[in-house]
Every structure is written in structure tokens, then in C-alpha cells.
Write a structure and sequence with these properties.
With about 300 residues, this protein is an all-alpha fold. The chain is about 65% helix and about 0% strand. The protein has 13 helices and no strands. The radius of gyration is 24 Å and the shape is elongated. It starts with a helix and ends in a 9-residue tail after the last helix.
Length: about 300
């Protein structure tokens, strides 16, 4: 887009947000007798589309009550629904279904923000080899993936057999912290057959890749999609109320399976082209997530 076109788009966006939007909303309220939130609930089917439109309406509002609602803790969502209805002068007897619809949307919106906070906390938690729980989870990962082979020592080249870079996996968790390990372990625990099958694929003589390193890379992809809001369509369709950490781990499992399939369909000439194919895969996932009806699950 040319600089002139960008300026026109920016100007139009500014005018709509600060001038036209108010009058459009006012005219529609006079015609329908309903506020924007009511019209969204009436006109949108129960899907991510409704929740995304409610979220945008609340965040764009000049009312502090409506703006604050998207940051309310789960146990205060009902209180904010009542405050919004009071602020917008909505008669519960005339619009009987509105309160429940708004409540469900708010639970999804605030739940997504809480999930991101929880994921971020785990990402910021560094792997600590002096932490017995961390070490236990790492050993459990090995045992789940390599049930017929025992580790000869904690520091060993055997770790390369499941796709770590050296003799001590802790150095590979620097970027994603404990989030990287927890995702790898979750996949191995809950989809053991699939995890072992993908590990076998990763040892292919020509198309092989580092299982654990790619897994940590896919954790970074899942994290970035969560952070930039791209995962809202998926979670708002999948979870009718509050998304939990378990839902994020399951999305990682989906990525792990889909990437393995993608890699072998593409047949890269060399692992040296990994970043190029990783970006291509990333674009495929982002494109899928732009569908308001999408659910990406195994």
C-alpha cells in the first residue's frame, strides 16, 4: 500500500472511531431500541464472531465500566454484567437472553487474558536442574518416549536421541522456560502413541529433524499466536466459558501432529531450510485461525 493510501486509511479509521461511530450507534439505537451490545448478541450466532465483536465494542467504548469489564476476574463477571446493563439502561424483562449471552462472552474474554498470563508465567520460569520437580518431569519425558532404553546418566549424549542438542537438555529450554518442557511432557503423556510415532519419523535418514528442539520451537509458535490474539477464534469456539492451561497444551499437541504431517508432505531438501518451512507452516496456521468457525484440535 502506498504512503498516500495508508494516510487515507489511517484518517478514515480515526474519523470513524472518534466521530462517525458515535452517530452510527446513536442512529441504530433510535431505530432498533437496542444498544450495540444487544444488537451483536441478537445478530451474531454463538461463535467466536459474537465474542470478538463484544470484545471490540467493550474496548472501544468511552465508558470506564465497559472498558473495565474485559479485565474483570472470573468471580466478578456477573457483577460487571449487571453494571453494564445498568449503564446501558437495558431492561432484563424485555431482553431476557442478553445477560446470559453477555456473561458467556465475558467469561471467554477474561478467561483468554488469564490464560495468557498463566502461560507467560510458565514461560518465564527457567528450567532449574536443582529443582527436583523439574528434573522429575525431564526424566519422565525420557521414560515416556524411550520406554525400552534407560538413561545411563543425567548428563549424557542419549538426550540427542529424542532431539535435544547436547548432553544436557536444560540449555535448550532457555527461550521458552518450563513451558517448553511441560508441552513436550503433556504431549507424551496424553498422546503417547502419536508422540512416539512422531519421534520415529524425526529419525528418518533423509527427512529427519530434532524432535525436542522442533517441539520447543512449536511451543514458541503457540505462545506467539496466543500473545497476539490469533488464538481467540479457536478458544472462543472450543471453550464455552473459561479457557484453561490444558486447552493451550492441547493446541500445542495439534501443532506437533500437523507440523510432522506438513514436514513430510513438503519433503525439504535439508534441515537447513527449517526456518523457511517453519514460517510457511506458521502462515498456514494463521490462515486457518482467520476462520470465525475454526477449531484446531486433534
Amino acid at each position: 500500500i502506498a504512503a498516500g493510501e495508508k494516510m487515507i486509511i489511517h484518517l478514515w479509521s480515526y474519523l470513524y472511531k472518534h466521530v462517525f461511530r458515535f452517530w452510527v450507534k446513536w442512529i441504530l439505537r433510535q431505530l432498533t431500541g437496542k444498544c450495540e451490545l444487544q444488537r451483536i448478541c441478537d445478530g451474531s450466532k454463538k461463535s467466536s464472531e459474537r465474542t470478538l465483536r463484544i470484545e471490540h465494542s467493550l474496548e472501544s467504548s468511552k465508558s470506564k465500566v465497559l472498558q473495565s469489564a474485559v479485565h474483570s476476574p472470573e468471580d466478578e463477571v456477573k457483577k460487571y454484567v449487571a453494571l453494564i446493563m445498568k449503564e446501558k439502561k437495558i431492561d432484563i424483562h424485555k431482553d431476557t437472553g442478553f445477560a446470559l449471552k453477555l456473561q458467556m462472552c465475558l467469561l471467554q474474554i477474561t478467561g483468554y487474558k488469564k490464560l495468557y498470563s498463566d502461560v507467560e508465567d510458565l514461560r518465564k520460569c527457567p528450567y532449574n536442574s536443582n529443582n527436583k520437580e523439574h528434573e522429575k518431569e525431564l526424566i519422565e519425558l525420557w521414560n515416556l518416549l524411550m520406554p525400552h532404553e534407560k538413561l545411563k546418566a543425567r548428563i549424557t549424549k542419549q538426550w540427542c536421541d529424542i532431539g535435544f542438542q547436547g548432553d544436557d537438555p536444560k540449555t535448550d529450554f532457555r527461550g521458552m522456560g518450563m513451558l517448553g518442557l511441560v508441552n513436550l511432557l503433556y504431549f507424551s503423556k496424553h498422546y503417547t502413541h502419536e508422540a512416539r510415532q512422531i519421534l520415529v519419523h524425526s529419525n528418518h535418514p533423509k527427512l529427519g529433524y530434532s524432535y525436542a528442539i522442533v517441539g520447543i520451537n512449536l511451543t514458541e509458535m503457540a505462545y506467539s499466536l496466543l500473545k497476539n490474539g490469533a488464538l481467540k477464534t479457536h478458544f472462543y469456539n472450543l471453550v464455552p466459558s473459561v479457557a484453561q492451561m490444558d486447552h493451550f497444551h492441547r493446541f500445542y499437541c495439534y501443532l506437533a501432529c500437523e507440523f510432522d504431517k506438513f514436514w513430510f508432505e513438503e519433503e525439504p531438501e535439508s534441515i537447513m531450510y527449517f526456518n523457511q518451512y517453519r514460517e510457511k507452516f506458521h502462515e498456514i496456521i494463521k490462515r486457518r485461525l482467520r476462520d470465525h468457525d475454526v477449531v484446531l484440535a486433534l
